[in-house]
Amino acid sequence: MQIKGIHHVSAITADAKGNYHFYTEVLGMRLVKKTVNQDDTSVYHLFYADEVGNPGTDLTFFEIPHAGSTYQGISSISGTSLRVPNDAALTYWQDRLHEYNVDHDGITKDGNRSVIHFRDPEGQRLTLVSDETNIGVKGGKPWDHSSVPMENGIIGLGPTKLTVKDPTPTITILTKLLTFKQVGSYPSSITSQEDIMVFATAEGGTGAEVHLEVRNDLQPERPGRGSVHHVAFRVDNEEELSKWKDRLQELRLPNSGLVDRFYFKSLYFREPNGILFELATDGPGFATDEDIEHLGESLALPPFFEDQRDKIEAKLKPLDTKRSH
């Protein structure tokens, strides 16, 4: 039983149309699936990724149209990073973010890696991270129809940052349960706060890290638009996922049991600081019900919702994601 790295990150948007524009046009990611939130089919669930939605490349959004502002704080997933091929790509991105008036901090360092911290139009906390020195989990491949040249394109998800007040229980879950090991740390950008701890699993590198920030000056986060709902970690297959479920039961950790998301199988639980973790299988993937050439162009529904299609579509605000090829 081995966690292979980050599988996907799911966040909240109040504006599916604006979200689609930003992540496809400005960031050049591919919409690989336009579907609905399986726990509330009246709202969209949008998946942005590399050319085919390889595991480890998906940044997903639930649309919650009336979501309020996020009040940032502890017990949260406080940062999502996106991998780019090298340091030269960051120079390209610095210019691009400036051109599109995206709020960003320029090229800086997290430890020995070059990064650009930036915010989307709803305040989603994002980081572009260079894979210049990466020797761990391989990235994906940018889509060749992207608005961003392939040599500079986003190749997957980088480290996920968690912010907590008391790190000990979170560290216990990461290291004693989820096969992560602490591999380093780097200074916080907040004066007087502890160094940010770096945990890695499997092959390590940018695609397999969790960064843990300790803050004693914040209240618990109040989520809204621009916040992250959960982070999912990769497991090989359903058989292994079932073993993880048994392990959680042994430890008496409340969990969802196995959930069929159709594109992958999932298992959810909260670590002791209240952050929602998901374990998700690498397959079967997003080409299960759509041709690879046309991923994300029409509303995809898992078979168990197909008989409700008319009712579901009637509740959704139209979102045109058709592309001219």
Automatic annotation (TrEMBL):
Q: Which domain of life is it from?
A: Bacteria
Name the species this protein comes from. Answer: Virgibacillus byunsanensis
List GO molecular-function terms, semicolon-separated: dioxygenase activity
Q: What is the lineage of its organism?
A: Bacteria, Bacillati, Bacillota, Bacilli, Bacillales
**Which InterPro entries does this entry report, sorted A to Z?**
Extradiol_RC_dioxygenase, Glyas_Bleomycin-R_OHBP_Dase, Glyas_Fos-R_dOase_dom, VOC_core
Instruction: Give a Pfam family name.
Output: Glyoxalase
Q: What is this protein called?
A: Ring-cleaving dioxygenase
Ranges for domain VOC = 5-131, 156-282
Q: Which UniProt keywords apply?
A: Dioxygenase, Oxidoreductase
